[in-house]
Design a protein that fits this description.
The complex is a heterodimer.
Chain A: H1 2-23, E1 26-27, H2 28-39, H3 50-59, E2 63-69, E3 75-81, H4 83-113
Antiparallel strand pairs in A: 1-3, 2-3
Chain B: H1 2-12, H2 17-41, H3 46-57, H4 60-71, H5 74-92, H6 94-123, E1 134-139, H7 156-165, E2 169-183, E3 189-196, H8 200-204, E4 210-211, E5 226-229, H9 231-236, E6 248-251, E7 254-261, E8 286-289, E9 305-310, H10 316-331, E10 343-347, H11 348-353, H12 357-388, H13 390-398, H14 403-439, H15 454-480, H16 484-489, H17 499-535, E11 545-551, H18 560-575, E12 580-586, E13 596-602, E14 615-621, H19 625-629, E15 633-636, E16 650-654, H20 655-661, E17 671-674, E18 682-688, E19 703-707, E20 718-725, H21 733-743, E21 750-754, H22 755-762, H23 764-798, H24 800-808, H25 813-842, H26 858-884, H27 888-893
Parallel strand pairs in B: 3-8, 5-7, 14-19, 16-18
Antiparallel strand pairs in B: 1-9, 1-10, 2-3, 2-6, 2-9, 4-7, 5-8, 6-7, 11-20, 11-21, 12-20, 13-14, 13-17, 15-18, 16-19, 17-18
Helix pairs in contact in B: 2-3, 5-14, 6-12, 6-14, 6-15, 7-10, 12-15, 12-17, 12-23, 14-15, 17-23, 17-25, 17-26, 18-21, 23-24, 23-25, 23-26, 25-26
The chains are: A alpha+beta, B alpha+beta.
């Protein structure tokens, strides 16, 4: 369970960083909605799991938070990418692309053999 | 970097919890608002919009919990929670907490105290730079020759050869003890010191704090009139004045100039760190150059010790190889001395700890057993308690606490208990070490270096943690592993304890009794040894005897005639004092250590090679010496005033010598020669009882006495006076001092003691061993009986209803009483049986410390077993009587 959660957390973190990169500062609900819209069912289970992920990214210094006011005049905590976060996003995205490329090749090779 | 940063953030997350909680609540509230608003815009009712938002989030509390786990360090937080909870529960049950932590304090305290000794004596490095390179090449006796000690002194010729030829050593030096009469500086005083060759101080790596060490030139005969003082002597006798350097002081009637003062605390060599055969003083006060003569006369006694500092990188083995080689070269010069030039290179650390290592490790083992008893006792207590708290644990498990969580909670509690015990134990250890240092400063080497340090604290911490886990694990596992449904269904009255729990406790109890048996048997054997020693016949009567040292300055007493003359006059004066019954002198006083030994020749037998030649201790004495010491004459006569140089040379031998060398014939009247033909043969005129020299337990060696009046070899400059008084010996001291001063005002009366004190001192180690193990035994007994009481009392409580039924059905109270007692007796019997078996094996280790007691001494085993049985029965008595008084009506209504 732990490992699966780690993979999940890693994926989620990458999506959060990407979301903040494309949309700019955003509150938790907004991030959740965006991820749900783009990824389909990843967050479908519950939005709650997003908050520990946000906290972790903030502890690691990739994002920062600030209280602000939403479009419809509600008080909300807004998250934004830091410089370290931008770098991390680039790094992680590259890692991810490499990984998928390798895996794709590997799986393709396995298929052709069988 | 990232990990570190996150970690800091999490540590920070431990604090300001309320503010952070509030902020999270606000954030989640705004999240829900935003979501609900959107849902409402999509056409849901307000209520439904909110409900959907909550579902989507996954619950506010669950999210908060997830978040919190990420925020701080959950481990620390639960630990803190557990600690507070444990402190609260322990605080609620003060009597339990007191009993358990006191038990642990005893165990941890005793083991920490013993470890402190072991640490100070065995583990701490010696106070010399690179002490691992310091070695003693001791002379060994040839194989097959038993002299009673393993480290022998070297002679001058061999020593000179080694000092010149050995190359594995950076410095190699010889030394021997020497005492010096200090005159012309207040009261005459006898200073204990050493004659040392030039490299002595560099071999040790310690140099004078003021002034300088000896030069090579000063280490030549005729130039040796220089002296280095110990710090204590300089401070106490010479007022600590810096201008002492260069001053002249009179030692043994010669002027010596002071060239140095050693650093404080330097008193090498101390007798307790050296082989007893050398008779080194307890602590050294002065050092003068050894100045070995290049051409010694042949029969000069061998009395030199050698100390060396290995060159960096050289091994002890290399030094041993070189010494073996050099030994064979020396041997060629002494055709008669074949086999007498082998050496054993002993590292200093080994020499210092020598024969204390094994007893210390044994005591550490004993205290380890005590610690085990204490932990199993506390484990028993905790187990009983956890059985009582079963419903609490079950309830918490039912409310969702995981196994691990419950286990951790239980362990936290026992660890907290151990921590309380550990803190008290540390205080106890410190106090007992201080106490041991006061009463037993001369029982162990390096005692002044013993004390609490970081290593001891680390040990105490480790022991505390170990006992905490050890005593808490069984009950913790029991608590965590309960079956929810059955326990919750059980009714209050009978949930007192599960069968497994009770079985654990009985098992622990049997173990405790067995371990207590082992400890008490060991204590019993040592106690018997002690009393056997008290009964042992020392070969003299120590009561009402005063001893002191007479040391004649060589400068004034230059010939044997002068020496004999002054002893004549001293003994005449002392003997005629009104309070004195008899006065004598001897080279070594009873229990004053071993003197010289010599090869002897039995004249009417064919000569034997030196290697197989008989040998004997050789002691110069005076005619009245045996009377003064109270040593009975078995046959023949004592020395007489009429035994003079011109009369027939005579000798008196001890019983052991007569028995060993004349097993089937009469030794009286036989003629004895010494190793060198230069000494005239002597006639055996008397046989005296065996006198002990080092300890009451020693096997007496053959010993021969010669009288000083016949001017025997070698030097007689230092003698021990033995004065038997009519009344209290101390009362005669004044008149003795006056009498001595009347003979020669410059003679100090040094090292005054009573023979009884010396004998008592020789008993300190056996007494210490007896008291220590006796103490452990008593504590072990007490703990085992508390454990016994606990188990039986618990069993009575548990079986109250059963007992009630039995009594209602007509069982008589006596039967019930017997039944409970039998239960205790069975457990105790099992423990004792296991204990006897173990003790039979363990006491083998004690063999060398016993005197006239077998390690399997049946009296001790039976006695201790009986003691344990009675203690066990006593411990069962109280709960069993309570069982007897159970009122069937009350018990049955108890449901």
């Amino acid at each position: 369970m732990g490992e699966k959660a780690d993979v999940w957390q890693g994926t989620l973190a990458l999506m959060v960083l990407k979301t903040l990169d494309t949309m700019g500062a955003q509150h938790g609900y907004g991030i959740a909605r965006r991820i749900e819209q783009t990824s389909g069912d990843l967050l479908a289970v519950n939005y709650g799991t997003l908050y520990p992920a946000l906290l972790k990214l903030e502890q690691e210094g990739y994002i920062k938070s600030e209280w602000g006011v939403s479009d419809n005049n509600r008080k909300a905590k807004f998250y934004a990418l830091t410089r370290a976060g931008r770098k991390q996003l680039a790094r992680e995205a590259q890692n991810f692309e490499q990984m998928t490329a390798i895996l794709a090749r590997f799986l393709a090779a396995g298929e052709s053999q069988s | 970097m990232k990990g570190l940063r996150a970690w800091f953030a999490r540590v920070a997350g431990l604090f300001g919890r309320e503010r952070r909680d509030r902020e999270l609540a606000q954030e989640l509230a705004s999240h829900l608002d935003l979501h609900a608003e959107e849902n409402a815009r999509a056409g849901m009712s307000r209520q439904e919009a909110r409900r959907q938002a909550l579902i989507k989030l996954g619950g506010v509390e669950a999210t908060k919990e997830l978040y919190r786990e990420r925020r701080g360090l959950p481990f620390v937080e639960t630990l803190w929670q557990d600690l507070r909870f444990a402190a609260r529960t322990l605080g609620k049950d003060i009597s339990f907490t007191m009993a358990a932590s006191l038990t642990l304090a005893l165990g941890i305290g005793a083991s920490t105290a013993v470890f402190t000794l072991v640490n100070g004596v065995l583990l701490k490095p010696l106070p010399y730079p690179h002490a691992e390179r310091i070695v003693y090449p001791w002379r060994q006796s040839p194989p097959g020759v038993e002299l009673g000690f393993n480290e022998l002194p070297w002679g001058i010729i061999d020593t000179n050869f080694f000092l010149r030829e050995a190359h594995t050593f950076e410095s190699l030096a010889a030394f021997k003890n020497g005492s010096f009469n200090l005159t012309g500086w207040g009261e005459p005083a006898l200073l204990e010191g050493h004659r040392v060759s030039a490299a002595f101080f560099s071999a040790l790596g310690i140099h004078p704090e003021r002034g300088r060490a000896f030069t090579k030139e000063e280490d030549q005969a005729g130039h040796e009139f220089e002296v280095i003082l110990s710090y204590a002597l300089w401070r106490d006798k010479f007022g600590g004045k810096p201008d002492i350097l260069g001053a002249s002081i009179e030692l043994n009637g010669q002027l010596y100039s002071v060239v140095g003062v050693m650093p404080a605390g330097f008193d090498f060599p101390q007798s307790e760190q050296m082989p007893s055969s050398f008779n080194f003083p307890r602590e050294a006060q002065i050092w003068v150059p050894l100045a070995l003569s290049a051409k010694p006369y042949p029969a000069q006694p061998a009395d030199l010790a050698i100390i060396g500092r290995l060159k960096p990188g050289a091994s002890v083995q290399q030094a041993q190889t070189e010494m073996d080689l050099l030994g064979r070269q020396v041997e060629k010069q002494f055709p008669n001395g074949k086999g007498w030039f082998t050496s054993k290179v002993t590292p200093m650390a080994l020499q210092v700890t020598g024969d204390t290592k094994e007893p210390l490790l044994l005591i550490l083992g004993a205290v380890g057993v005590l610690l085990l008893i204490a932990s199993s006792n506390v484990a028993g207590l905790l187990l009983a308690r956890s059985m009582g708290r079963k419903r609490e644990f079950t309830m918490r498990a039912a409310l969702g606490a995981s196994h691990g969580r419950l286990l951790r909670q239980a362990l936290t509690e026992s660890l907290l208990l151990a921590a309380i015990g550990g803190a008290a134990g540390l205080a106890l250890a410190d106090a007992s070490v201080r106490f041991i240092k006061i009463i037993g400063s001369d029982m162990l080497p390096r005692m002044q270096e013993v004390g609490l340090d970081l290593r001891v604290l680390g040990f105490a911490l480790a022991v505390t943690a170990a006992t905490g886990i050890l005593s808490g694990l069984a009950p913790a596992l029991g608590a965590a592993g309960t079956d929810l449904a059955t326990t919750l269904k059980e009714d209050d009255q009978r949930s007192g304890g599960s069968r497994t729990g009770q079985r654990y406790r009985k098992l622990l109890l049997v173990g405790q009794v067995a371990m207590a048996m082992v400890l008490v048997v060991a204590a019993g054997l040592l106690t018997r040894t002690f009393f056997q020693l008290l009964k042992a016949d020392p070969g003299f009567q120590p009561a009402r005897v005063l001893t002191f040292t007479i040391s004649l300055p060589a400068g004034k007493y230059t010939s044997n005639e002068k020496i004999v003359d002054i002893y004549d006059r001293i003994l005449a004066r002392l003997g005629s004092l009104p309070g004195v019954q008899a006065a004598g002198i001897a080279e070594t006083a009873p229990m004053g250590g071993i003197g010289e030994s010599t090869v002897v020749k039995i004249l009417d037998r064919p000569p034997v090679p030196d290697l197989q030649a008989p040998y004997a201790n050789y002691t110069i004495a005076s005619p009245n010496y045996f009377r003064a010491a109270g040593t009975p004459l078995l046959r023949g006569r004592y020395f007489q005033e009429s035994d003079r140089p011109e009369s027939v040379p005579v000798t008196i031998i001890n019983h052991a010598m007569a028995r060993k060398y004349w097993p089937n014939e009469d030794s009286l009247g036989k003629m004895l020669g010494l190793g060198s033909p230069r000494f005239p043969p002597m006639k055996v005129v008397g046989i005296v009882a065996d006198m002990k020299h080092q300890s009451l337990r020693e096997d007496v060696m053959p010993e021969m006495y010669v009288t000083y009046t016949q001017k025997p070899y070698p030097s007689m400059l230092t003698m021990q006076a033995i004065v038997r008084t009519h009344g209290e010996p101390a009362a005669a001291l004044g008149s003795i001092r006056t009498a001595m001063a009347a003979v020669d005002a410059d003679l100090p009366v040094a090292k005054v003691s009573t023979l009884q004190t010396i004998v008592d001192q020789s008993m300190t180690r056996p007494r210490f061993a007896m008291l220590l193990l006796g103490g452990f035994g008593v504590v072990a007994l007490a703990l085992a009986s508390i454990g016994m009481y606990g188990v039986i009392a618990h069993s009575v409580n548990q079986r109250t209803r059963e007992i009630g039924v039995r009594m209602a059905l007509g069982a008589d109270p006596g039967q019930v009483f017997g039944m409970m007692l039998k239960q205790g007796a069975r457990l105790a019997g099992l423990g004792i049986a296991i204990g006897v078996g173990t003790a039979l094996g363990v006491t083998q280790l004690l063999k060398t410390y016993l005197y006239q007691v077998k390690s399997t001494d049946p009296a001790t085993f039976v006695g201790v077993a009986a003691l344990l049985v009675s203690v066990a029965l006593l411990a069962c008595w109280i709960p069993a009587r309570r069982a007897m008084r159970v009122d069937p009506m009350v018990a049955l209504r108890h449901e």
